[in-house]
Amino acid sequence: MKNERCDIVIVGAGAVGCAIAYLLSKAGLQVTILEQDSIGSGSSAHATGLFTLLGSDFSDGPSFEMALASHSICKTMVPALEHETSIETLFQHKQAIRLALDQEDKDMIQSMGTWQSRYLPIRWLSATQCHQMEPRITKKVIGGMLEPDALQIDSYRLTLALAKASEQNGATIKFRRATKIKHHKKKVTGIEVPNGEIECESIILATGSWSNLFSDQIKYPIFVEPLKGERLILKMNGKPLPLFLGSPKGGHIITRKDGLWSIGSTGGRDDDDQSGKPSSAINYSPSEEARLDLLQRAVMVMPCLENAQVVQQLAGSRPATPDRKPLIGSIPTWEGLYLATGHTARGVHLSFITAKMIHDFILGSGNQQLFNYEAFSPARFNASRKLDYLEDSPIFEG
Ligand SMILES: Cc1cc2nc3c(=O)[nH]c(=O)nc-3n(C[C@H](O)[C@H](O)[C@H](O)COP(=O)(O)OP(=O)(O)OC[C@H]3O[C@@H](n4cnc5c(N)ncnc54)[C@H](O)[C@@H]3O)c2cc1C
After folding, report:
1. Where are the domains positioned within the chain?
2. Is any atom of ligand 1 closer than 6 Å to the C-beta of 50?
3. Fold that domain 4-392 belongs to in CATH
4. Each residue's pLDDT tens digit in the chain (398 positions)?
5. pTM reported for the whole predicted model
6. Is the C-beta atom of 49 inside 6 A of ligand 1?
7. For a pocket test of ligand 1, which of 52, 209, 348 has the largest count of ligand atoms closer than 8 A to its C-beta?
8. Which of 75, 156, 243, 263 is the most interior residue, by most CB within 10 Å?
9. What sign does the CA torsion over 361, 373, 319, 94 have?
10. Beta strand 337-341 with 202-205: parallel, antiparallel or unpaired?
C-alpha cells in the first residue's frame, strides 16, 4: 500500500465508527475507516438494537439526556439512511413495558420512575393493564412501567447502511488493522497499517472491546474491557408482540420486524465472564449455560415461549467501562486523537449522538451543546477500573 492522505482516520467499522464516518463525510471531510476484520463484525453484529430509555443503563442527568438526544436523532436519521442506501434496517417503533415480577423489581422500577418521569411521559400499569396489552405475559407479573416510544433496529444492517452511506459521501473503507499512531510531539500525523501509512490530521479510536490495546502505545489508560453477552433468536407461532418487553430479571423479549423473536441478554455473571481479561482474548463462543439460562428467564416472563424454536444463538462482546458510560472526546495531552468507545450495553442506541459529539469536537457545535459533553470525557476516571456493576447484572435488558 502506498502512503496516502486524508483528513480523518476512524479506526473500527462498528456502529459507532460508521456513524461517525457518516456525519463527518457528509460534512465534507475526507474520511478513511480502518477495519481489521469485516464491517460490524465486533459487538455491533451481535446487538439486539433495542433503544429503550428505562433500563439501568442511563442515570439522571447527562447520561439520560444523551440517550434521549440519540433516540431523537435516530428517528430522523434512519429513514434518511434507508432512502440513501436502499438498505432496509428493520427499524420499528413500539411502546415498551418494563415489567416487575416481584416487589424488588417494582421498588427499583418505580424509584427510577420518579426522576425518569421528568424526561418522559411514562406511566405505571397494574398487572391487569399489562395483561390487557399482552395476555401472554406471566400471571406472576405485578405491574410495569409503560414507555411510550421505544425503538428497535437490526444493528448489523444499520452498521452496513452507515458504512455504505459514508462511502457514497466519499469515505474510503480499508480492511487493515491500525497498528501504530504516528505523531510529532503528541500531535497526530498519521497511522500505520501493515505495509503502509496513512497521513491524517485526526484519528478517532472507535475500536470497541479492543480499545485498551492502544493504552500502552499512547501512554494513556483506556478503561474499556470486553464483557461477553449472548442472546437468542427464536421462531414462534402466534401473533407478534404488540410492544417490547423488558424486565430486570428476565431481560428483553421482542418480536423483530422480520417476525423472528429476540430474547436476552446474558450479562456480568457469565461463566465466561471476560472482565479483567485483555481485549486480545475476546471469547465469541456461544455456551449451553447461556442458552438454557436465557430460555428459562424468557419462559418465566412469557410461558408460551416454551414452544419456541431456537434458530440462532449470538455471542458478542460489549465494550464495558467502569461506570457503563462511553468515553467520548479528545485524549488529554494529545492533539488530534479522540476516543469514541466504551458504550457497554448501549452502543447502537448511542452511536447517533456519539457521531454528533465527535462532529462537534472536530468542526465546532455551531449551537449550544444539548447536554454536558464533559460527563463522557475519557479523563473522568482515576486509577480504579473495576467493573463494580457486574455483581448486580446477571442479565442486560438489551
Ligand atoms: C448480546 C448483546 C446485546 C446487545 N444489545 C444492545 C442493544 O439492544 N442496544 C444497544 O444499543 N447496544 C446493545 N449491545 C451493545 C452494542 O453491541 C455495543 O455497545 C456496540 O455495538 C459498540 O459498537 P462499537 O462500534 O463501539 O464496537 P464494535 O461493533 O465492536 O466495533 C469495533 C470495531 O473496531 C475494530 N477494530 C478494533 N481494533 C482495530 C484496529 N486496531 N484496527 C482496525 N480495526 C479495529 C473491530 O474489528 C470492530 O469491528 C449489545 C451487545 C451484546 C453483546
Report:
1. 4-392
2. yes
3. FAD/NAD(P)-binding domain (3.50.50)
4. 666 999 999 999 999 999 999 999 999 999 999 999 999 999 999 999 999 999 889 999 999 999 999 999 999 999 999 999 999 999 999 999 999 999 999 999 999 999 999 999 999 999 999 999 999 999 999 999 999 999 999 999 999 999 999 999 999 999 999 999 999 999 999 999 998 999 999 999 999 999 999 999 999 999 998 888 999 999 999 999 999 999 999 999 999 999 999 999 997 544 455 555 555 567 778 999 999 999 999 999 999 999 999 999 999 999 999 888 999 999 999 999 999 999 999 999 999 999 999 999 999 876 677 899 999 999 988 655 666 666 566 678 77
5. 0.95
6. yes
7. 348
8. 263
9. negative
10. parallel
Residue corresponding to grid cell 428493520: 90
Ligand 1 atom showing the smallest separation from residue 34 Cα = 43
Place of cell 459521501: 169
Q: Which residue minimizes the CA distance to atom 34 of ligand 1?
A: 12
Read off the C-alpha cell for 326. 462511553
